[in-house]
Amino acid sequence: MPVGIGNTNYRHSDLAKLYGLPEQIKSDADEDEDEEDSEAPSCSPSSEHKKGESGSSLGSTDLMKLKALSDGPPKELKIRLIKVESGDRETFIASEVEEKRIPLKDISIKNTASEIIRSCKAARLKGKFKESYLLPAFSVKPIVSKEEPIPREKLNPPTPSIYLESKRDAFSPVLLQFCTDAKNPVTVIRGLAGSLRLNLGLFSTKSLVEANADQMVEVRTQVQQPADENWDPSGTGQTWPCESSRSHTTIAKYAQYQASSFQESLQEKGSDEEEDEDDEKKPPSSSETPNKDIGKIIKFGTNIDLSDPKRWKPQLQELQKLPAFMRVSSSGNMLTHVGHTILGMNSVQLYMKVPGSRTPGEQQLLFSEHQYWPRRLHGVDYLTGSWWPVLEDLYNANIPVYRFIQRPGDLVWINAGTVHWVQAVGWCNNIAWNVGPLNGYQYQLALERFEWNEVKKVKSIVPMIHVSWNVARTLKITDPDTYKMIKHCLMQSMKHIQILRDQLVAEGKKISYQSRVKDEPAYYCNECDVEVFNLLFVTSENNSRKSYVVHCEDCARHRNPSLTNVVVLEQYRIEELMNVYDSFTLVRLDFLVRNRSSFMK
């Protein structure tokens, strides 16, 4: 069949018959066929005016043209030809292309990436686009009400403790379910090292010195005092702030201090027994001061980095014996998908202690509000401060406290959002790390804390937007709630990026593409510490070409409203993000059972 260009106009009904399209879908052209025929340009001489007609007069054809133009510009039904291969034959089918523009407020995770981008372009918003990454329907923020006082005996609930008898117990799915259950703020797993035959000797002071004697140790100088007390420096009253001075030493030198402290304790124990006998013979003094005696000064070796796989290979390999959900790195651990090491978060840290060494109150930095978190006590900055709660204050505020002792070989699982603080009762070494189980409760808590930190201008150690995109690229999600929350976060991220990008282009600002490299960290604003994803606002420090600083849009415009001397870098093409978004779908569990080897994409 010959193909002509521009000299023939097909009606929709003709196309419908030709390509098998439904005839009930009509275009404006079908409603007034003669008008459309007269308007279309033609290469044929037959469309010219007849000879002898005056140039000022209008024929019937001209009147039709004017009438057609008065009805507005012509409308088109776009048709896409799709090639179909059948054996050795190639045929084409016609498919209608209808670009729907959905209002931005009506966009949901049910829409495709193309529909989201089109809605963003059509929105034409003025000012900064601000919408939460959270899916409100799944919020786990507690409703704090004035409840009845909890009886004193219930303010010290028993700590859930699981005793393991075999390796099989450690790898039981029931253990994973119990630990990650939101109803259990803490779980002590007794005898884990024994059931898995972990060689804890690799973490003894002697082994540590032999492995890396010169490894740096952060030292916190503290005052030794009972675990349920926290006296101010003058000893006149108990307080919440828990301050300590910081210095540094090596593993070898701290090991010497730890050993000498133990020897001194043995000597003091003998002398204390003699003093107690003498004190029994003396009458009480009437001039005793009510002030608390200041305890002895101790040193706590903390934040010792064990992330280097070359320097700490035996220790890290030993931890691979743990169940997958407890490991430093596993496919189901969100922190594994950060893509780079965050010291103390997705890497192992070691703590070398003497009696009284304190890790002050903290909430898991990845996680969000515990049900008692909204309560503000004693003006302490819980996000950035160092504090040690006074137990009576907690009990008076109707807050229950779990208290327990961790023995050698026990593992303590601190669940998402649980506020906790730790004090050593002996000479010991501990290791610790964070995990982020990929479930809906965990993810929602993490994202809530992420946004709360942004409001409070506090840096989120875990870059949740960066992590969410990495999870979508690499994992198959089977839980519907988890899928919906991650998908919503990706959708909001795309909206933020596209709207900001369109505003920058409209201002005439050049956007330069610079793709990410392997192990490149996530970026944070140099001023406000908010995570900066994809569109980076970069300036040179002190006009140096070797030193560059990343800013968020707000801080960049605060420095210069017109963004002069600010380079905007784009790390992902919008098409790449669109492909990730559309490819991220909910996977049926029965599909994964049949395809266990393809859990990772």
From TrEMBL:
Its cofactor is L-ascorbate; Fe(2+). SMART domains: JmjC (SM00558). Its main location: nucleus. GO terms for cellular component: MLL3/4 complex. Its EC number is 1.14.11.68. GO terms for biological process: heart development; regulation of gene expression. GO terms for molecular function: chromatin DNA binding; histone H3K27me2/H3K27me3 demethylase activity; metal ion binding; RNA polymerase II cis-regulatory region sequence-specific DNA binding. PROSITE patterns: JMJC. Residues 157-452 form the JmjC domain. Residues 21-69, 224-244, 262-294 are annotated as: Disordered. It is found in: Nucleus. It catalyses: N(6),N(6),N(6)-trimethyl-L-lysyl(27)-[histone H3] + 2 2-oxoglutarate + 2 O2 = N(6)-methyl-L-lysyl(27)-[histone H3] + 2 formaldehyde + 2 succinate + 2 CO2. It is an enzyme of class 1 (oxidoreductase). Residues 29-39 have a biased composition (Acidic residues). Keywords: Chromatin regulator, Dioxygenase, Iron, Metal-binding, Nucleus, Oxidoreductase, Phosphoprotein, Zinc. Belongs to the UTX family. This is [histone H3]-trimethyl-L-lysine(27) demethylase. It comes from Neolamprologus brichardi. The lineage of its organism: Eukaryota, Metazoa, Chordata, Craniata, Vertebrata.
